[in-house]
Amino acid sequence: MPRRTPTSTWSRPWPSWRRRASTCPARASSPSTSHSRPAATDPSRAGVDTGARARSAPPRRGTMSTDDDATALRLDRDHVFHSWSAQAHLNPLVIAGGLGSTVWDHAGRRYLDFSSQLVNTNIGHQHPKVVAAIQEQAATLTTVAPATANLTRGRAAEKILSHAPAGFSSVFFTNGGADANENAIRMARLHTGRDKVVSAYRSYHGNTGAAVVATGDWRRVPNEYARAHVHHFGPYLYRSEFWATTPEQESERALHHLERVIQAEGPTSVAAILLETIPGTAGVLVPPPGYLAGVRAIADRYGILLILDEVMAGFGRTGEWFAFDSFDVVPDLITFAKGVNSGYVPAGGVILSEPIATTFDDRVFPGGLTYSGHPLAMGSIVAALDAMADERIVENAAAIGRDVLRPGLAELAEKNPLVGEVRGLGVFWAVELVKDQATREPVDAALMGRIKAGALARGLLPFLADNRVHVVPPCVVTPDEAATGLGLLTEVLAEVA
């Protein structure tokens, strides 16, 4: 079957605040000079405090030392226990600083960040307005209990709701995406009086009790102790579970499968369907036409709530404020984290529609943590959302996807025999790699390791998952930076093909 590239996205202008200070060290040397460094643009055109940017720039090369990198690695190996890792086999990259779409180590080696860390630095590294807001809030009030009223928290909720659909009335703040999903599940169960939650096998919803069991991938297996979770197969035409040959067939058959799962479980026992709007870690699986609207219809038919997990896809990643804005669907609950403040301070939350919020008008909601709605997190949310609107960062993500990433990745797919499919929206893409385009057998871990090493050697920080390279730069990435990153990725894949 031929490879497919999805249709994408929207045409809008992109901002120009992303100029690097002249003191930034050069990226790690590349064996090829065919891809030039990103061109500088004038940050003053977007009203950015260039002085603040310069103050956050890295030290000059002469002040940096490989000794600091060695010390960082030694301390890490001796004292830090890493997540999702076999500790004895780690050799982590040292990152000492960052600015915009670039990070660097203590020795001055620079990397173009095509990972956005864990797909969360939508606004880029060290955005001066967000850094200043955190500093200002720290000087005013560093912590306060969730039960109090706080002006910054109220403003953060108001700004989040301004981007939500009509009918959403309140925000429950959490410390991240996992506990956002945890609390959304709790709300759904209490609101409906039902127990079961239906989620997809190809999904990731976080690593807390219910969230990790709602997750469909391998990470749920050693943690599977929460109750009443049911899984189904979502649409994935490239590796269809339903013998579909068109997006329309895949959508129709996946919806039939979902409804049959619900019927088999007993519809009156199901509280919620929990979906990532676009499954991210599972492979940036953009849903086919009609799928999400069909899920909404099934949920309505059986009195089931629809929770959309926008933790990774939300706040600009797809070229829209929320990924579901691209589809004909409105959920009952929205979970978020990551891009809402780009992870500058841990934050997440649940956006509640009015009917669910009113459930708890005279009934205690039994949830919350000490640091929920933390002032530093709230200050960073206010500043980040203001900057994203003022600097048209969401529009930039759409334009980069349409004008640079989509055509560039389509060209890569045509030229490299390892590429089975590319898919995505905005600055949210996956390149699926296969040993054979006819059989679609995934490439092995050894080859993915070579790809990672080749990318880092060229000064490109990639995001790899299974047999895929995810192309997920910050939403502020410039056209030149995006093209440079694609050029480096093209080199690496040509080298290992």
UniProtKB/TrEMBL annotation:
<protein>
    <submittedName>
        <fullName>Aspartate aminotransferase family protein</fullName>
    </submittedName>
</protein>
<dbReference type="GO" id="GO:0030170">
    <property type="term" value="F:pyridoxal phosphate binding"/>
</dbReference>
<feature type="region of interest" description="Disordered">
    <location>
        <begin position="1"/>
        <end position="68"/>
    </location>
</feature>
<dbReference type="GO" id="GO:0005829">
    <property type="term" value="C:cytosol"/>
</dbReference>
<keyword id="KW-0032">Aminotransferase</keyword>
<dbReference type="InterPro" id="IPR049704">
    <property type="entry name" value="Aminotrans_3_PPA_site"/>
</dbReference>
<feature type="compositionally biased region" description="Low complexity">
    <location>
        <begin position="1"/>
        <end position="16"/>
    </location>
</feature>
<dbReference type="InterPro" id="IPR015421">
    <property type="entry name" value="PyrdxlP-dep_Trfase_major"/>
</dbReference>
<dbReference type="InterPro" id="IPR015422">
    <property type="entry name" value="PyrdxlP-dep_Trfase_small"/>
</dbReference>
<dbReference type="InterPro" id="IPR005814">
    <property type="entry name" value="Aminotrans_3"/>
</dbReference>
<dbReference type="Pfam" id="PF00202">
    <property type="entry name" value="Aminotran_3"/>
</dbReference>
<dbReference type="GO" id="GO:0008483">
    <property type="term" value="F:transaminase activity"/>
</dbReference>
<keyword id="KW-0808">Transferase</keyword>
<keyword id="KW-0663">Pyridoxal phosphate</keyword>
<dbReference type="InterPro" id="IPR015424">
    <property type="entry name" value="PyrdxlP-dep_Trfase"/>
</dbReference>
<comment type="similarity">
    <text>Belongs to the class-III pyridoxal-phosphate-dependent aminotransferase family.</text>
</comment>
